[in-house]
Amino acid sequence: MTAFLLALLGVCLLQPTLVPRLAIGGIQPDLFLVLAFALSLSVGAEMATAGGFLIGLYQDTLSGAPLGLNAFTLSLIGFLVSRLSRQLGTAQLPARFILLFLAGIVSGLITLLVLRFFQVHRPLSVSFFWTVLPAAFYTATLGVGLLAIPKLKTISGANW
To answer: CA 19, CA 31: separation in Å to the nearest integer?
Structure first.
């Protein structure tokens, strides 16, 4: 639990301060998604869902997005990743990359659809190809790289 809270605090500090400097063409990685993904690999589906909700709630309060948008998205992703990681065996980096990339796509699509519901009209195809896909790829690349660091392996494998 302490490792999770420290990781959440670190992400809350790094996402608004360091990540904008890592932007490529306006596309930024989502460290909150990486944290929810790492948590989902090491706990059961119920804890991953609850952790994803908490992570998303923090992201909502920091981002100015509609309250609950990221909480819903990350709780759903936490549940799905936890279930799928048990079935697919995500010990290898390529499997983790693919699963995190797909989680980024799902997160982006849910965000686009919810914003569309709230009358924020963006062309879906343009937003998908120019925002969602690059952000998912960037997040997956950075996230798998971070999870491969030996010190972070012990944290991601810790009992949250």
So the answer is: 8
